[in-house]
Amino acid sequence: MKILLVEDDERIARSLAEALSDQNYAVDIAIDGEEGWAYVEAYQYSLILLDWMLPKLDGIHFCQRLRQHGLHMPVLLLTAKDTSTDKIIGLDAGADDYVVKPFDLQELMARIRALLRRGSSILPPVLEWGKLRLDPGTTEVVYGNQPLHLTPKEYQLIELFLRQSRRILNRSTILEQLWPSEEPPGEETVKVHIRSLRQKLAAVGATDFIETVYGLGYRLKQL
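Now predict its structure.
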């Protein structure tokens, strides 16, 4: 899943982006509201982490603009403002949740997971395809009773396929969804990660789990 982090404090932004990457999220960082809006216009995000006090376009007006444009991805507002009135302003502007700085990182991650589940309410909390099970809460992946030990990018790949199980995904779409937009790798990188993921799936008995649709991309093998 891809998250947009709009935060003008570089230290907070970098440490939070690193923590999110460790949890298998792809993260784009914007340092002011207008840059954040440019990212929103160019890419699709599963969730936005949004600071309130931003240069050029503050978090409240950013959130209002999102909703006015009919964009409904979850927004978690990050701010040092902690009064009840501030929280009401943030939620009324269209934010889905509100976390006061300084925040506990584990609580923040739990709130992110809850918002992502809510944003994908048509999907069960545990993703399944045949014998394969992926638990987004624990990031555990098993096939039958056998755990798969995946790299962060392999995990992101299999989660993307499970969440879009009926779609054919081409390499450019996979790059857009799973890599930060600033410096995406070439499409050959996708091929390398697909090959590695297939090998690990085959090792636990899931042969031909991801199939190639020649000229179009990849998809899960239909059950």
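DSSP finds eight helices and eleven strands in the chain.
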